[in-house]
Amino acid sequence: QVQVVESGGGLVQPGGSLRLSCAASGSIIRINTVAWFRQAPGKQRELVARISSGDTTNYSDSVKGRFTISGDNTKKTTYLQMNNLKPEDTAVYYCYVYYNGDARALDAWGQGTLVTVSS
Asked: Does residue 53 register a pLDDT over 90?
């Protein structure tokens, strides 16, 4: 049983910054990948950023140069640093963890944290 909890969302002005946190706990042997997704009302959930256990990162074109994903050695704590936020970044942000359990690879989602970018 694994739990994933996001935090750090809130209201911020355009051009401002926020740092989201993702905390994973439970029966995790090794985290392979952590990813941040976001979903705005009426839109599909989209991949924002991801980081592998080897610290390889990937970003969507819309956030490249503005967002940075990072984590500790275990990736049980992962951060999404969001700079120069734009109104179009407004969405519920979800943390996704792909990990090795006791016997096989599994995944888990957080409950989401709302980011609102508005003047």
From this structure: yes
